[in-house]
């Protein structure tokens, strides 16, 4: 699988036939997890890696600037968008090095207690686990890149401060995925004067990719649950426009956003909690 992805990354430079061939190889690599049997967590991680590396091959296939072979390989292996990386003086970010492990510990504790809790506390702890895990990854990723003398846009920007769903999904939460969806689904339609169709296509793509990464290890029921969450978010985003939430006061907008994200969140959280159940058991 890895050799196929590396070949795909190198092929997507040059004439159109090479880019098409590279994309075909990337799709084959993304489907590879269907052919293996593994514990849910391992299967989940392999599915994420193979899919997201294939998604980065799509970046390379559409890239018009020349990139070195090494840059192409790194682009799919680190799973970040390496193109906007900026060189900076290497530095030790002590704050991020402290915050990362602290948030990691919070995530581990929340996960451990979530699986033995009844439904409502289980999902509240699950939400804390996801948020803390994202904060840990954001801080540790920033610290590592700073030490290597590289600067890249953050993984997210204080999502809990969002005052609209547009702000939450487009400007604050999981920004690497948000930027990828924007580049490949929203902008092509928005440039043709179909911005709302672009938003809908981005949410449909998000629903599909999230359903894929949990559906492969857990089956169709959990895939449907995950997809339903993002389809609900798309519907709520459309309702948000009709309600004019952007004109509401900040407290009202924040309350709306948190309710929209959290009330249907069991559809999103339950598959993740089942995937991470073995890791939680290991924390006993």
Q: Span from first to last CA?
A: 34 Å
Main beta sheet strand tally, sense and closure: 2 strands, antiparallel
The fraction of residues in strands falls at: under 5%
The parts where pLDDT drops under 50 for at least 5 residues are none
Describe the structure.
The protein has 284 residues and is mainly alpha-helical. It is built from 13 helices and two strands. It has a two-stranded antiparallel ribbon. Helix 6 (119-147) crosses helix 12 (266-275). It is globular and about 50 Å long.
Characteristic terms for this protein:
mainly alpha, single chain, globular, 284 residues
List the helices and strands and how they pair.
Elements: H1 2-11, H2 16-31, H3 40-62, H4 69-77, E1 86-87, H5 94-114, H6 119-147, E2 150-151, H7 165-172, H8 175-190, H9 195-218, H10 220-243, H11 250-262, H12 266-275, H13 277-282
């Amino acid at each position: 699988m890895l050799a196929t992805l590396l070949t795909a990354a190198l092929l997507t430079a040059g004439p159109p036939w090479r880019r098409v061939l590279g994309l075909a190889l990337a799709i084959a690599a993304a489907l590879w997890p269907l052919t293996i049997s593994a514990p849910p967590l391992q299967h989940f991680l392999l599915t994420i890696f193979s899919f997201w590396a294939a998604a980065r091959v799509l970046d390379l296939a559409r890239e018009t600037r020349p990139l070195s072979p090494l840059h192409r390989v790194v682009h799919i292996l680190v799973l970040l968008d390496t193109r906007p990386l900026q060189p900076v003086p290497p530095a030790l970010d002590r704050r991020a090095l402290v915050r990362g492990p602290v948030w990691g510990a919070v995530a581990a504790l929340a996960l451990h207690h979530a699986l033995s809790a009844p439904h409502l506390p289980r999902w509240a702890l699950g939400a804390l686990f996801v948020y803390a895990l994202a904060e840990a990854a954001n801080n540790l990723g920033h610290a590592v890149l700073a030490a290597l003398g590289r600067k890249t846009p953050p993984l997210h920007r204080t999502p809990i401060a969002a005052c609209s769903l547009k702000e939450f999904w487009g400007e604050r939460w999981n920004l690497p995925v948000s930027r990828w969806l924007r580049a490949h689904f929203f902008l092509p339609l928005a440039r043709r004067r179909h911005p709302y169709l672009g938003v809908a296509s981005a949410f449909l793509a998000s629903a599909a990719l999230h359903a894929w990464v949990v559906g492969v290890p857990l089956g169709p029921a959990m895939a449907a649950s995950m997809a339903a969450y993002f389809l609900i978010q798309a519907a709520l985003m459309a309702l948000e426009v009709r309600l004019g939430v952007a004109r509401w006061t900040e407290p009202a907008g924040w309350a709306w956003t948190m309710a929209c994200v959290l009330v249907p969140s069991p559809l999103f959280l339950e598959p993740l909690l089942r995937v991470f159940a073995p890791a939680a058991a290991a924390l006993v």
